[in-house]
Amino acid sequence: MKGLKRLLSYTRRACEDYGMIEPGDKIAVGVSAGKDSLSLLYALAELRRFYPVPFELVAVTVDMRFGDLENGGVPTDFTPIRELCERLDVKYHVEPSNIAKIIFDVRKESNPCSLCAKLRRGMVNDTAKKLGCNKVALGHHFDDVVETFMLNLFFEGRLGCFAPVTYLDRTDITVIRPLIYAPEKDIRYFAANAELPVVKSACPADGKTERESMKQFLADLEFKHKGLRHRIFGAMQKAGIDGYKEAKVKIYSDPKRDE
Questions:
Q1: Domain count for the chain
Q2: What is the β-pairing status of strands 25-30 and 165-168?
Q3: Structural domain contains residue 258
Q4: Residue 103 in contact with residue 64, Cβ under 8 Å?
Q5: Domain around 34
Q6: CATH code assigned at 128
Q7: Could you report the per-residue pLDDT of 32-59, keeping only the tens digit for each?
Q8: How many Cα atoms occupy the beta-carbon half-sphere of 214 within 13 Å?
Q9: What is the pLDDT of residues 123-171, one digit of tens each?
């Protein structure tokens, strides 16, 4: 399958560089139904076949229930995701929530993304624990790392990012991010060729966030200064920011592919 070999290479290297997977791990993959989380699920399911360390997988989706919020929201049809999980031999669990109602109907948040992400992550972690998992895998990729670092620098005046591996003592769950070496363009390429059942977000704030503005800002800079994202990521590794460290093998970078 086109793009799978490259995606697996990124995933395996990240897992090995940061010791993300240990013998006997039961990993809950947070599946939002977007291209990133579905690609992560596919990559880990394939990696499971030949990785030297045995591990189990379960896919977890938090149903936000957008639409008709006054009456508790409308359940989302995740049948295509369930069918994908069956093909990959991965158990699938959908956790209902009232997050959309809380954010948009009760609290009427003008900047909902931060609270939404916090509530969703909390539900995924709690659900993972309930299902007997000791780790949660999230689909943050290479571009997310750079964008988050830049957002923290621009809007909070600090040098920081989410970590590749984070232990949460409250829930006794370790969060891993196996796609941190995978550029978004490669994920997009794989998802399209694999015909993953991507479900477009129904969130009214989708595409209208500071992150989207930063994504465009970096794209404009990258057009003028090829390899900029990789240099920013490399600087984070050299500085050891939030657990990032220099990889044994340099991340693939072809300026022509970034155009």
A1: 1
A2: unpaired
A3: no
A4: no
A5: 4-251
A6: 3.40.50.620
A7: 989 999 999 999 999 999 999 999 999 9
A8: 17
A9: 999 999 999 999 999 999 999 999 999 999 999 999 999 999 999 999 9
